# Entry
Amino acid sequence: MVKEKTAFVPHDCVDCQIRHRAVCAKCDVTELEQLETFKYYRTYEAGQTIIWSGDRMDFVGSVVSGIATLTQTMEDGRTQMVGLLLPSDFVGRPGRDGAAYDVVATTDLVMCCFRKRPFEKMMAQTPHIAQRLLEMTLDELDAAREWMLVLGRKTAREKIASLLSIIARRDATLNLRGVDGEMVFDLPLTREAMADYLGLTLETVSRQISALKRDGVIQLEAKRHVTVPDFARLMEEAGDDSDGGMLV
Amino acid sequence: MVKEKTAFVPHDCVDCQIRHRAVCAKCDVTELEQLETFKYYRTYEAGQTIIWSGDRMDFVGSVVSGIATLTQTMEDGRTQMVGLLLPSDFVGRPGRDGAAYDVVATTDLVMCCFRKRPFEKMMAQTPHIAQRLLEMTLDELDAAREWMLVLGRKTAREKIASLLSIIARRDATLNLRGVDGEMVFDLPLTREAMADYLGLTLETVSRQISALKRDGVIQLEAKRHVTVPDFARLMEEAGDDSDGGMLV
DNA sequence: CGAGCACTTGATCGCTTTCAATAGCTGTGG
DNA sequence: CCACAGCTATTGAAAGCGATCAAGTGCTCG
# Structure
């Protein structure tokens, strides 16, 4: 993983890298200025818990860089990941005080936070924010439902292939590459985190990754660096037919 | 199930039974009048498909009475239910033309439909609608995530208990009863539909229902009429500890 | 009375889990 | 420099849970 600390540069909204995708995407300059009056940045290290389920939330915010996970835990310790937070994704729920899930940084991470009360107040008066948040929430709902199909009906092999294809696709769009032919990326999750996402055990994840490697669907270097020689083949293994779907 | 057709009485919004919970909940009288200019009702019979995945949608709307399911299907026929639509729930996604899921009426059903274009146009100008839709979407997202835990990490027995507790709870709130002591309700789903919801086979559903009955967690009459003598016991079987959560 | 449907129950199979041992890597301290 | 702890990941063997295949029941409707 990254050795040196992520450089942390607080910045103006107008220079912001996630500006066009985040909750503020539709805001005009005046609205951005208003947001900046109650905005601040926070950094987290890989492995750090950002929010504990049940905690009182005094902010909402956007992931600026890095990756975080949203997980639920049962009393006996079984855990299920229910979301993967990537740059531009929104954290927190306006109108609710308590956090519903644990949020954990899996890489070093920078969050753009807004104090909750002012944000809620502004949202009530600023359609641009509510509209964008609605779009984002609808997208997340679609992603959650796609994931319900994965969890409920796919085999372990298909689950792994599904996860790899999501990560590959996301990586391609973030880096403005196409989704065809060979794709190369790093897994941002441990085997255990993948297992929590997929409703499997880490041993099964390991076995199925080995199997996909053995069958030539993927190539692996150093456990985390993946090459997909033929993306269509991977999609096939995921049980999806070339067709879209499977958002993150 | 119901033999005679559901009486269909088109009505004014002011008399509407779901008015305080549906997407129009925050609308004032003027806004309701505007909605009525592009509103119409449709009825569906039990078993009828309301929307096919991939279809072009020319309306959005609210379930007025009856129950519908939202399902996804893989090419090989495996299906996963991704949502249960109850009275006041919203159908369709503003801003998207194609339907993402199959919507099927499991009972006779009445829908309050809005022509899509006028609805979208009005939503852009009416914060009350967008605000309410955001609230509803956030609730659905929470429900979907709760369900991911059920699908990914619970045993067959826990899955059944989870589903029963959700239905019991919903039934209690709809009929303004409390969530304690004995609860009685009818299952609105076939064993197969339950299996599709829970990521199981219908045989496993049947076996686990029999097991819960044998163990005294539930009583059954006529396959669909359920009595829960002790709701806390059911929650325990679901792996939830008395605690809230588990929305529909 | 027989067809069709929803459901139940039994027997067996196989995938995923569980338990367990091992490998590889990194950082620490003698 | 090497030994060792701690972590991630792999792999093997055995067990268990849910799926699959297969009857059979009870009910409704024509």
User: Anything to note?
Assistant: Residues 190-192, 202-203, 205-207, 209-210, 223 of chain A lie near DNA strand D (CB under 10 Å from a C1'). Chain A touches chain B at residues 70, 72, 74-76, 78-80, 82-83, 93, 95, 100-101, 124, 127, 130-131, 133-135, 137-138, 140-142, 144-149, 151-153, 198-199, 239, 241 (CB under 8 Å).
